[in-house]
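hey so i finally got around to running both of the ones u sent me last week. sorry it took forever, my laptop kept dying halfway thru and i had to restart like 3 times lol. anyway pasting them below in the order u listed, first the sequence line then the structure token line for each. didnt double check formatting much so if smth looks off just lmk and ill redo it

first one:
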Amino acid sequence: MKKWIALFPLALTICASCEQKMSSEKFKSREDAYWAAYFTNDIHGAQKALLNGLNAVDAYENHYTIEGIDFNAARAAFHERLFLIYQATHETNKMESELRQSIGLVNQSRASQHVPPLNMSDQEFAAKLENLDVGKDVRWKKEVLAKTEAR
């Protein structure tokens, strides 16, 4: 039952509008809600927001025509942040899965733009992800750091 309740906002978002086209601005404003939740001080809430964001991107791609949106790049951004969360929670299998998915999506995005695939190792890509949120107030990261320093 909880799964249905969790998916209700996504279903409502999709069903509330019968339009077949969506502007990139409207798409980005909807995505902003997921990113705002990612910045929370609750790492599990941030994780849930990212997973919901991934589901929303899939739904938008399946139900709308949106000019100027690279769905693979959008999905990659969510997977990259999930990588950071699983790294912080020491969930190595999930972390590695998110890294592989992100690299694959980035390369699909690059291919659609006729750009060669990434030329770096998984470790180099992972190191670059460490800098994704530099200068942003990602409160769950501060909470994790505070807990680590308290030990």
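and the second one:
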Amino acid sequence: MVHAVDHWYSRSDADLELDLFCSISQTGMHAENCTTVVKQHRGDSRFFQAFDQVLQAPCTGYVLPDPNNPVFITVGASSTAGATSDDDTVEVDFSSHDPEKFIHIESIEISLDPAP
């Protein structure tokens, strides 16, 4: 939720950004992707959004079949929020009262393409 209320004596602004990200890395090779889910700037207004659908942050990378160099896959979410006065409220809630609605990783799909 992003909430900003302008008063006669001050101006209020609030910002919220929520991103999903993933990355694949192995030694010197690295691939990553970031998908912005919410990017809101509010001045004298309110914004609230709930998500029930599946959100994806696709990430494609190539790695080598090397038992001495493991492959690291990272999936996550990040948020940044800021407010300019005491009249602003910026909140990010990664869960709800329903245990099925926590942010969770439903699946990681991996495909192997043989080398030519």
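quick thing i noticed on the 2nd:
Strands lie at 2-4, 13-26, 29-43, 45-47, 72-83, 89-90.
anyway thats it, ttyl
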